[in-house]
Amino acid sequence: MSNSVNINVQHMTRVEGHGNIIVNVTDGKVEKIEWQVPEAPRFFEAMVRGQSYKDIQTIVSRICGICSITHSLASTKAVENAMGIEVSEQADKMRVLMHYSEYLQSHVLHMGYLAVPDFFGEKSVVPLVAKATDAVKTIIRLHRLANEWSDLIAGRTTHPVTLIPGGMTKFPTELQLREQQQKLKDSIPDLKAVLNILLSVAENIPVFERETEYVSLKKDGMYTLYHGEITSTDYDGTVAISDWKTVTNEWVSDQSTAKWCKWNRPSYMVGALARFNNQADYLSPLAKDVAKAIGLEKGNANPYMITIAQLVECVHVIETSIQLIDELLTAGIKPEKIVTSPKAGKASGCVEAPRGILFHEYEFDSQGKCMNADICIPTGQNHASIQHDFDKLVPEILDEPEDAIRQKLEMLVRAYDPCISCSTHMLNVEFVK
Amino acid sequence: MSKPRIAVFDFACCEGCQLQIVNLEEEILDLLGGANIVQWREAMSEKSDEYDIAIIEGSITRPEDEARVKEIRSRAGVLVALGACATMGGINKLKNNFDLDDVKTYVYGKDAQKPHLATAMTKAVDEVVKVDFKVEGCPIDRKEFTYIVRCLLMGKTPEIPQYPVCVECKANGNPCLWEQGEVCLGPIIRAGCGARCPSNGHRCFGCRGYVDNPNVNAAKDVIEKYNLDIDTLKLKMSLFGSQQEPTIL
C-alpha cells in the first residue's frame, strides 16, 4: 500500500478560473488536503457603487463569461424588487427562455468540453475529435444551438444586451420564435445521443458517496430555476429570498482561511444535483426518462453525478422551452415600451445559475444611484462541500496510484462545474509553502 | 515552414472572450489547420511553454501578474491582447476610481489585509508590455477574432474600423437612442461590433474603446440639445472608459 502521497496541482485545467489542489500524506497519515483558489480578486461589489440602477446588469454580467445571463437576471430582479418595478408576464416568460438558453450553453460546455474528456481518459476535447468524432459533432451542434438561442433572446451569446429593469429592450418576432421552437424540437435526437455517449462511458464515473444538505430554489408544482424561494433537503418549507443570508451564513474556518457557507450542516451543496434532489418530481417527461435510463434517482449523494444531473436538466429546459414558446405564441408577441423611474430602496434577487443558487443584493438612493452591493455566488457556496468531499474521498482511495488520486480529485472539482472567477470576491486562501 | 504555436493565457477577467473562441465551434478546427494550440488552461490539460503567438485575456491587477505577463512576452514572438480587459483594462478599471484600501475593505472587511488579496491599480496589457495586436470588445466579436488571427497567420496587418459605432448603427437603420432619452456612446466609440447593442435597443456603453480623435466636446452640445447633464455622460463613459483619455473637461 502506498503510504506517502504528494499532490500539488497548480492552476487546475478545464475549469473556469484558477484553483489549486494540495494533498500531503506521509506514512499513511493525512497531513493536508486542501482546495485553494488563487484567482485575482476583482471587487465587483465595490465597483458598482455610484453607478445607475440601469447599468448594474451591464457591469455585473462581467463577473462571469459562462453565466453572464444568470448574473444579469439576478441583479435585474434585485433592482426591480428594490424599486417596486413590475414586469409583464410576457417579459417574464421571455427572460425564462433567455435563462434556459444559458443553461443549455453552460451545461453542454461543461459536460462536453470540460468534464467528459475525463470519462474517455483524455486530457481535452481535442483528441476526442479523432477518437469520438460523432460525439464531438453532437456536442458542437448542441452548443451552437444554445448560443444561437441566446443570441436571439438576449441579443448576444455572452453579456446580454436586451435585459433592462422593467422588461426587455427587444423581443424576437413570432416567426423567429417559431423557428427557434422547431430547432429545439429537432435537437431531441442529439440529446438522446449525448445520453448514449454518457451511458457508454458510465463505468468511468467514480463511485463515491457523501450525503449532505442540498440547497436550491423551490416553487410548488414545478422544477424551478428562476422563480420561487429557498429550500433544502434538511429544511421543511421555504425561506424568502430577502432572508438569503440566514441560509449562506458565511464564516471563516480554522482549517482553512477560505470563507465557507453553512446552513443546517457544516457545508451544503448547490447546483444541478442539489436541484435534482429537491425537485426531481417536477422534471419534464423526457427528462425523467433520461434520469431513469442513466440510474439517477432522488437522494443521489455522488458528487460526480452532478454532470449527469446537468444532462437531465438540458432535456428539461428544452422540453419546457418548447411549451413556453407555445404559450408566448398563443398570447401573441406585443411590443412593450419600458419607462422606469428610480426610487430609494434595498432588495435581493435570486436565480439558479447553472452551477447553483445565486444571490444579488443592492441598495439605491432616491436618484437610483447604487449605494451598496452584496453578491453570493454558487461556487463560493460549494467550496466547503468540495473540501469535505476531499476529506472523505482521499482516505478511501489512498491505495490507488498517485496519478489516479490526482485524477479523481480533479474530476471531483470539475464535476462541481466551478466558476472560480465568480467566486473570488468572497474567498480567502492562505498559501503554505 | 512549421505551423505557428499559439498559447492562450487568462488574467483578471470573466473568461468570456475565451468562451467566444470556443463558440466558434467547428471553425476552431479550421483555424487549427493553420496553427497548433499548445497551451490553453480553460480548455485543455496538455501544456507546453514553447510558443510563437501568445493570446492574453484579462487585465493586470497584481504585481505577480505583471511578472507573469512579462515572462510570456519574453517567450512570444507576437502578443495579442484579447478583449476589453486586456486591451484597455475593461470593467476592472472601475476599481481605479476608488481608493484601493477602501475597495478591499468594502468587499473583504477585516480580512482585507491578507496577502493573497493584495491588489494594485488595474492595467491594460499594453501598460505593462508591448502589445502587437488588439482584439477589442466585451466580449470580443467572434468574426473579428477569426479575421485578425487569419491576418496574423498570413503576415498581414488587420484593418480595424477608424469610424464610430454610429456609422454601423445608421447602416442598420436603427432609430437613434438619443432621441429616446438614452445616453448612448455610439458617437465616440470605435465600430466593428456591427452596432450590436443599439441594434438590440440598448445604448452603446463603450466596450470597444474610443475611436481615434473622438469629438468629445461636441457631445456637450448634444447633451444640451437633449436636456441631459454632463455628469450622466461622464458616468456612462466610466463603465469601460475609466482612467482613459479622453475625459470631458
Largest sheet of chain B: 5 strands, parallel
Return the average pLDDT of chain B rounded to an integer. 87
Strand content of chain A: 15-25%
Give the biggest sheet of chain A: 4 strands, mixed
List how many beta strands of chain B DSSP finds: 5
* Element-by-element helix/strand order of chain A: EEEHHHHHHEEHHEEEHEEEHHHEEEHHH
Oligomer: heterodimer
Q: CATH H level of chain A: which superfamily?
A: Cytochrome-c3 Hydrogenase, chain B
Note poorly predicted spans of chain A. Answer: 422-433
What are the segments of chain B in which pLDDT stays under 50 over at least 5 consecutive residues? Answer: none
Strand pairing plus helix content of chain A: what structural class? alpha+beta
Please tell me what the overall shape of chain A is.
globular
Q: Helicity level of chain B, as a percent range?
A: 25-40%
The beta-strand count of chain A equals: 14
Shape of chain B: globular
The number of distinct helices of chain A, counting runs of at least 4 residues, comes to: 15
How would you describe this structure to a colleague?
The complex is a heterodimer of chains A (433) and B (249). Chain A is α+β, with helices and mostly antiparallel strands and 433 residues long. Chain A has 15 helices and 14 strands. The longest helix of chain A has 31 residues, at 89-119. The model of chain A is unreliable at 422-433 (pLDDT under 50). Helices cover 35% and strands 10% of the residues of chain B. Chain B has 10 helices and 5 strands. Chain B has helices at 16-22, 26-33, 63-75, 84-88, 100-108, 142-154, 165-171, 196-199, 218-225, 230-241; strands at 5-10, 36-40, 53-57, 78-82, 133-135. A 5-stranded parallel sheet of chain B has the order 2-1-3-4-5, with helices on both faces. The mean pLDDT of chain B is 87. The chains are: A alpha+beta (433), B alpha/beta (249). At the A-B interface, helix 1, helix 4, helix 5 and helix 6 of A face helix 1, helix 5, helix 8 and helix 10 of B.
